[in-house]
Amino acid sequence: xxxxxxxxxxxxxxxxxxxxxxxxxxxxxxxxxxxxxxxxxxxxxxxxxxxxxxxxxxxxxxxxxxxxxxxxxxxxxxxxxxxxxxxxxxxxxxxxxxxxxxxxxxxxxxxxxxxxxxxxxxxx
Length: 124
Description:
alpha+beta; VC0802-like; 4 strands; 23% strand
């Protein structure tokens, strides 16, 4: 079953890379990711199939793992209005969504303090 793991990392170059490497080295696929930083640190949500193995791999790499929560995965059409419609469906049922992000088989969105450097790195 797909599980969202919350990890707490430093807001510095290489922190998210270390998490990805720890899971990759353990043979664990990241099926989705959302990360947000602040001056005090960063939080990332990682979508994985095997929560226990992912938690063990991250903790072995010295990465703080917080909450784990099950999630529902849907495969909507990629077109305008779909997010609104799905969220409306939940709202009309009285459901308060607490987490949403895109997963694999779509696009990866990246942002950085230095976008020029990020663009250059991706072009290399």
